[in-house]
Each structure stands twice: as structure tokens, then as C-alpha cells.
Design a protein that fits this description.
alpha/beta; Heat Shock Protein 90; single chain; 22% strand; 9 helices; 242 residues; Rossmann fold; five-stranded antiparallel beta sheet; three-stranded parallel beta sheet
Length: 242
């Protein structure tokens, strides 16, 4: 689904010619994509990030709600290091850079098939700007992952999730959207998205400091992590072993 007619026609031609895909619908913008996904209930959605009315990242959660069984792969001209994490955090199962030859799109989608079957989204909740939200997020993470990861990993995930939600509600003064997914290779990815201004950074914090420790803990305890900027707000994500 793309706003540029020529590119959408090229994608349709490539996938139709390949023979492994049946195209059931096309959309010209984010709102249209959500409506069609709900009506057609596709197995796979190729969703462009750069669309009018509602961009792909903003449309993604609503599209997943409209068609929960659909697997969404993001197609974008943005480099993966800029938008891939935000896409995965929003519920996408893959990310393809369309500046690479679009003629290879069918093969890229087919190569993603193993990943499409292994990514399991286990949590996607939004928390209010409330001092009880970090504790609620911590409890929800434990409930979602208790039977899927060992106790030591779960303790780390709970702690880091709580710290990031605290950052969102206290320092960004924003609701916090928490998503968690089981990834290939027994990895857990948790992301916390807020709509607040500013860009967090690791700061030196002593034992008596009331802030500044969250990202330092993420840096210390996560196997990998990152921050993605959005038009409004940002997503902080981390991964650990299950």
C-alpha cells in the first residue's frame, strides 16, 4: 500500500509476476489501508511509511487492531537504522528498504517468511500519565512473559520496562505505549513509545538522584537497545535473551 501510483503499480507487477502472492487490495493512504485491512482480512500487508493523511507508523497500530491476524511488513525509503525499531515496536514483523531494487521485493518477502512465523507479539498496551503506571506496566509484562522467559531475564525486563515508563510519564509528561515481542533466536524486544518533546540521554546519576538512572540501567543490562525519533515523540527499545 503506497501513495505513489507508479511505485504501487510496480509492486503489484512484481508480486503478481512472482506467483507466490495473491493481491486482494490496494490503498492510497493510511486511513484507506486500515479500512481495507478490516474489510479484506489479508494474511500479509505491505505498508509504506510515507503516506498522506496518516503515515504508516501512525496507521500501524490501528491496522493491526482492524486485522489482528495480518502480518505487516513495512516498506520505506528510510534507512533501517532510522525506522525499523519503531516499525517493529508498532507491531510490524519486518522492514524492507525500498531504495534497494524493488524488483527483489518478492524474494525479500519470501525470505522473511520464517521470521513472519516466529515473531510473536505478546503485549501492546498504553498507560496513562499516572504514578501507578510503571507498576502496572511491570505487572503486565510479568503476566505476558512469565511462561516464556526464565526468571532472571524476566526480572531484568520488568525493571527496564518500569524505568522507561517512568521516564515517559514523569519526564516526557506523556502516555506510554509498551509493546513486547518474542523474536527469532530467543530474543525479547520491549519498546516504550511516548509523544513528549525532547530526546533522552544517559546521564551520570548517583545513588541519591531521583532521575537519570533509566537509560544507564538499559545500557548496563540490555543486550542491545536504541532510541527512534518520531515526528512527535520517540520510541526507546531494548532486547534481552529469553
Amino acid at each position: 500500500m503506497d501513495d505513489h501510483d507508479d511505485l504501487r503499480a510496480l509492486v503489484r507487477r512484481v508480486l503478481t509476476r512472482d506467483g507466490r502472492f495473491d493481491i486482494v487490495g490496494e490503498a492510497t493512504d493510511g486511513e484507506d489501508a486500515i479500512r481495507l485491512a478490516g474489510d479484506l482480512v489479508p494474511d500479509l500487508v505491505v505498508l509504506d511509511i510515507n503516506m498522506p493523511t496518516l503515515d504508516g507508523v501512525a496507521a500501524l497500530p490501528r491496522l493491526r487492531a482492524a486485522a489482528p491476524g495480518a502480518r505487516v511488513v513495512m516498506l520505506s525509503a528510510y534507512p533501517a537504522e532510522e525506522m525499523e525499531s519503531a516499525s517493529i515496536a508498532g507491531g510490524a514483523v519486518g522492514y524492507i528498504d525500498k531504495t534497494v531494487d524493488v524488483e527483489t521485493l518478492a524474494d525479500q518477502l519470501h525470505s522473511l517468511s520464517a521470521v513472519l512465523e516466529t515473531v510473536q507479539h505478546v503485549l501492546d498496551l498504553t498507560y496513562d500519565v499516572d504514578l501507578t503506571s510503571p507498576r502496572a506496566a511491570r505487572a503486565d509484562v510479568r503476566h505476558a512473559l512469565a511462561e516464556k522467559v526464565d526468571k532472571s531475564s524476566l526480572d531484568i525486563i520488568e525493571l527496564l520496562t518500569s524505568e522507561l515508563v517512568t521516564n515517559a510519564i514523569q519526564h516526557a509528561n506523556s502516555t506510554a505505549r509498551v509493546a513486547a515481542a518474542l523474536m527469532a533466536g530467543r530474543r525479547i524486544r520491549v519498546s516504550v513509545t511516548d509523544d513528549g518533546p525532547g530526546y533522552p540521554s544517559i546521564r551520570d546519576a548517583d545513588d541519591e538522584s531521583e532521575s537519570g538512572r533509566g537509560l544507564a540501567m538499559v545500557e548496563l543490562l540490555a543486550s542491545s537497545w536504541g532510541i527512534e525519533r518520531h515526528t512527535a515523540g520517540k520510541t526507546v527499545w531494548f532486547e534481552t535473551e529469553a
